[in-house]
Amino acid sequence: MKKELLIFFLLLSGITAQASAVDPGKEEPMDAFGLIMEHISDSHQWHVIDYTNRRGYPVHINVPLPVILWHNNSLWFYTSGDFYHGNHPLPLGDDYVILRDEHFFITGQEGVLKTDEAGNIINASPLDFSITKNVASMLMSMALLLLIFLSAGKAYARYGMAPPKGFRGVLEPIILFVRDDVARSQISKDKADKFVPFLLTLFFFIWINNMIGIVPFFPGGSNLSGNISFTATLAVFSFLVINVFAVKDYWKHIFLAPGMPFLIRFLLVPLEFIGILTKPFALMVRLFANITAGHIIILSLISIIFIIKSIYIAPVSILLSLVMFMLELLVAVLQAYIFTLLTALFIGMSTTKSEH
Amino acid sequence: MEAISFTAVGLGLIVLGAGIGIGKIGQAALEAMSRQPEMSSKIQTVMIVAAALIEGVSLFAIVVAWLVD
Question: What is the pLDDT of residues A333-350, one digit of tens each?
Answer without folding.
Answer: 999 999 999 999 999 989
